[in-house]
Design brief:
The protein starts with 18 loop residues before the first strand and ends with a strand. Strand 21 (221-224) and strand 22 form a beta hairpin. The chain has one helix at 147-151; strands at 19-21, 29-33, 37-39, 42-44, 51-54, 60-63, 68-71, 75-83, 93-102, 107-110, 118-119, 125-126, 130-137, 140-145, 154-157, 163-166, 171-174, 178-186, 195-204, 210-214, 221-224, 230-233, 241-245. By secondary structure, it is mostly beta strands. It has 1 helix and 23 strands. The longest helix is centred in the middle third of the chain and has 5 residues, at 147-151.
């Protein structure tokens, strides 16, 4: 057995990576109630661990050795998520987000209506979003539905040539074919932070021949064809669109 030493010369180009913020942290700023701890708010596309720094630890304190942060005082701070890279494969990357810590109660809108499969001629749709209020007790977070705040919900359509909303009856009326969005919002006040959620809307023309279906979750699905053979459609189902002929 022989051992050889080889000296390598040259330059290795490292790959770029990116910081991706979680779904509830994608806005221009993050609003947190005092006492809330946050981990996993951001990830790096390399899969390597992200660490955080704060511009003001009297507002947002860094905890768990930099792996998480906690809202500790009313005010505004800048949180920076960093992935340091390495010597061989990945370049370093960082991204900054404004965090507002409030003493007001945090409202959250839970909205499960599916508005992506409407068609011209359908009856008015009852909108069923509800407002939940976040409570933190001894570090435990719970959301409780609040009927008074839910009654304050207001809906708005981005394109009234497609759908219109009636805020007295909380219903959506179909006007014409197309795609748009509807936003549910509840105002803030001295005790509550304002919040809103936007829902995609698709209205297709009525047809006696076929329907277009969109699977809007990530689960695996099966499609039974007319001749009763079964085919498995693999996810992500949110990106699958298929057409089925009526019999």
């Amino acid at each position: 057995t022989f051992t050889h030493t080889i000296t390598l010369r040259g330059v290795t180009e490292k790959k770029d990576q990116y910081i991706v913020w979680g779904e509830e942290y994608k806005g221009d700023q993050i609003t947190l109630p005092m006492g809330k701890e946050v981990s996993g708010a951001a990830t790096a596309t390399s899969g390597n661990a992200v660490t955080y720094t704060s511009s003001d630890e009297n507002v947002v304190e860094i905890i768990n050795g930099g792996a998480a942060f906690k809202a500790v005082g009313a005010g505004t701070a800048e949180i920076t998520a960093t992935q340091a890279g390495d010597d061989t494969e990945w370049n370093a990357v960082s991204a900054t987000k404004t965090v507002v810590v409030t003493e007001k109660k945090i409202q959250s809108i839970l909205w499960t209506d599916n508005l992506s499969r409407l068609k011209v001629g359908d009856a008015d749709v009852q909108l069923t979003a509800v407002v939940r209020v976040l409570t933190i007790t001894d570090g435990e977070e719970t959301y409780e539905e609040n009927s008074i705040r839910t009654a304050m919900l207001q809906y708005s359509s981005a394109d009234e040539s497609v759908v219109k909303v009636n805020n007295l009856t909380k219903t959506l009326s179909i006007v014409g074919e197309g795609t748009t969005t509807v936003t549910a919002s509840v105002a803030g006040d001295l005790w509550y932070e304002a919040t809103s959620v936007t829902m995609p809307v698709k209205v297709r023309a009525a047809s006696a021949l076929c329907d277009a279906y969109v699977l809007d979750d990530a689960a695996e699905r099966t499609l039974n064809t007319i001749d009763e053979e079964t085919y498995t459609i693999n996810g992500p189902a949110s990106q699958l669109v298929f057409t089925a002929n009526r019999t």
